[in-house]
């Protein structure tokens, strides 16, 4: 199943060419000979790029061409690693201000080196020890820079020789040609065009879908902005879109409803002339072959359609060019109202282009229906009545199809006329991708989805082969991995890599290669056969180790392997993973946990073994191993490392050597409940964009100088340091923060100026902010006043959507809290602000939907200050309101004298009261949209429910005075 695609290689080669542009070379080195070598590389890569299209066309037929592509892929990886080492060295020099940017080979003499060292020693303060001076003079010196470039010369010479050999082979032996890489001109379509005819006896499980589409076609009132309406049938290849379109096209009711019908297989070549001519032939029986004028064809078609209700099926549409669709659809507007166009496509973007409404997403068949399709095409019957011995294995084959009728039909055809159990067991155990594709349609039907991906997307899709079948992954998870591998390095039109990654995920989902999880809409999953497609596309440079291959016997790997994943066991020992260490160029080490709850253990020697043998890792994960308490210092050897994932481990302290990982892009520390300390100094990690540590509740402080990490986009938790740690002012330079930020231990703030310097009001991309003081007793009034001033300075940007304030020790809230200028605030929480005596005027917030207030021990009354004085309708958008642990709360005063109570909380749907022991009186009586009411441990509260027409849930417990429900006449009819 080996495959190296021209387009994937094309993306790699193009990226290398861009890195070797003159301006890029200047940043890599000042060594003139090395510059010349790099420029030479660029020229040779451009020569290679020109013949990649020809190599792609010949790779499946000529083994020598495939070997050439394999060699080129390995060379591209090695070349990229060398350039990465130069970039890393350049960055290291920038971070050492006492060192010159570079030392030319001709000027690197011993005397110059020692003069530099003596000068450095004179500038060192008395606090710096002699050992530190020696360390600087040996490892961070001009000599070390010179030695680096000298060491790289031999590697550069080797790569140059390999490049020359590649070019020589392509010219002399393979005679590869310089051709235009145009997918449309190449023979990628290996399945025949479709027709409108269908054998209904061979179709199962689509009765419901057929009825729904027919109803849409017969509905003349369906939206028709252009005079006709478009209905799209969307889904992955092989799911049965064409078959469903054939069923409805031939339905008797549809036949009678439309005056004209036409079926056209559009396919990948959206030729407006060809499609128009095909439609005209179907409608007018026009057999003229002399028309070569599109204008004449469209005039004829418009005349035929004029005033007639028509149905047009455009099957297998790939075009996303709006101009083509606009030209093709010009004649359609002449049809009578109620005219319909059905478009079948794998790509939701095509449906959007045609303004399809509705977009009908076709799901997979059930296993039972797949079995019926399989039986029909294999045994020509409806069951196993004559072949009971095949029943068990047949059911397993049907499950293997994973709901794709085309797969069931393909495997059924393979078994046609065979009733020997051995034959059926062979098919069950055969990889679909090993079938002869010229005889079976499932392979080309799926592979065409891959062929039409842009080159960068092909790289990203192939990487997903590392995920096991049925694995549900989050969008951010795969984007961080793509970024670490360099697939998103090119930032188009100023977009961030993360934004480009989100676009790629959306595109793969739109093309039906990713599906949304049925259990969690925030996650994605790949159909089993799409997962197989990814593994086919990935070839030998990717390997996913399944449990069936993960015995204690030593597993052998290709030296070309670059990306490795495996499914975690309950215990993973050294023998299982030691073979990976033989692959010294490995870039990805990725354990995959199929369950977020299972506890996995890793042999203690494995991390040391991996870190000592795999120096080129870009992705290194120990996620989910609950016996990982520390990380070896050898982690500092991974100079290429971009992504380090220690989530769900018991790591306590990050080793100092991490600070030498200049390329580190992402550190994942989610659910690291025992993490206490990061590195003492993280200032060298200037490329760090993501530090996910939101659940690190034991983290003591952020390291001093944390503000140097100016590239940070996401930061889960910032812990205010007390003595040597980072203060709030370090947040000032982190101007790109986005998403969620949790600031903890605010009691350590010693200067109000620090809070002001944090400049939270300038963090325009922060959507969620949590401000937390640790649980403690605040008895000093001066401290209360100080914390009030601190919170006043921590005003977020007005675009914040969620805000939580917890443990605050001030007696009142600042005036900005509740200001109507926070027009996007949707979710607000106050927790255990025990010194506050009143609530802020949050009723003025126009879009506030969810409000939770708990532990406000000194609040005795809730009234006007809560609703606000500048809002005619308090809480206009509030949907859920919760009060809990309000120990001294006694009264809830209605809003304003003479104001109708139904003008407060006009959209409230859920109200909860917990542990409000002293609350007396009654609740607002006219909550017209209230659906759920929960009251527990409110001993003094008398609840009267008089006008709650939408109430569907009532939960009460320990309410001594009771709950009364009144009839409209005022008579109590029910009491709890």
From TrEMBL:
<keyword id="KW-0611">Plant defense</keyword>
<dbReference type="GO" id="GO:0006952">
    <property type="term" value="P:defense response"/>
</dbReference>
<dbReference type="Pfam" id="PF25019">
    <property type="entry name" value="LRR_R13L1-DRL21"/>
</dbReference>
<keyword id="KW-0677">Repeat</keyword>
<dbReference type="Pfam" id="PF18052">
    <property type="entry name" value="Rx_N"/>
</dbReference>
<keyword id="KW-0067">ATP-binding</keyword>
<dbReference type="InterPro" id="IPR032675">
    <property type="entry name" value="LRR_dom_sf"/>
</dbReference>
<dbReference type="Pfam" id="PF23559">
    <property type="entry name" value="WHD_DRP"/>
</dbReference>
<dbReference type="InterPro" id="IPR027417">
    <property type="entry name" value="P-loop_NTPase"/>
</dbReference>
<feature type="domain" description="R13L1/DRL21-like LRR repeat region">
    <location>
        <begin position="728"/>
        <end position="856"/>
    </location>
</feature>
<dbReference type="InterPro" id="IPR058922">
    <property type="entry name" value="WHD_DRP"/>
</dbReference>
<feature type="domain" description="Disease resistance N-terminal">
    <location>
        <begin position="11"/>
        <end position="104"/>
    </location>
</feature>
<dbReference type="Pfam" id="PF00931">
    <property type="entry name" value="NB-ARC"/>
</dbReference>
<feature type="domain" description="Disease resistance protein winged helix">
    <location>
        <begin position="466"/>
        <end position="534"/>
    </location>
</feature>
<dbReference type="GO" id="GO:0051707">
    <property type="term" value="P:response to other organism"/>
</dbReference>
<feature type="domain" description="NB-ARC">
    <location>
        <begin position="221"/>
        <end position="374"/>
    </location>
</feature>
<dbReference type="InterPro" id="IPR056789">
    <property type="entry name" value="LRR_R13L1-DRL21"/>
</dbReference>
<keyword id="KW-0433">Leucine-rich repeat</keyword>
<dbReference type="InterPro" id="IPR036388">
    <property type="entry name" value="WH-like_DNA-bd_sf"/>
</dbReference>
<dbReference type="InterPro" id="IPR041118">
    <property type="entry name" value="Rx_N"/>
</dbReference>
<dbReference type="GO" id="GO:0005524">
    <property type="term" value="F:ATP binding"/>
</dbReference>
<dbReference type="GO" id="GO:0043531">
    <property type="term" value="F:ADP binding"/>
</dbReference>
<keyword id="KW-0547">Nucleotide-binding</keyword>
<dbReference type="InterPro" id="IPR002182">
    <property type="entry name" value="NB-ARC"/>
</dbReference>
<dbReference type="InterPro" id="IPR042197">
    <property type="entry name" value="Apaf_helical"/>
</dbReference>
<protein>
    <recommendedName>
        <fullName>Disease resistance RPP13-like protein 1</fullName>
    </recommendedName>
</protein>
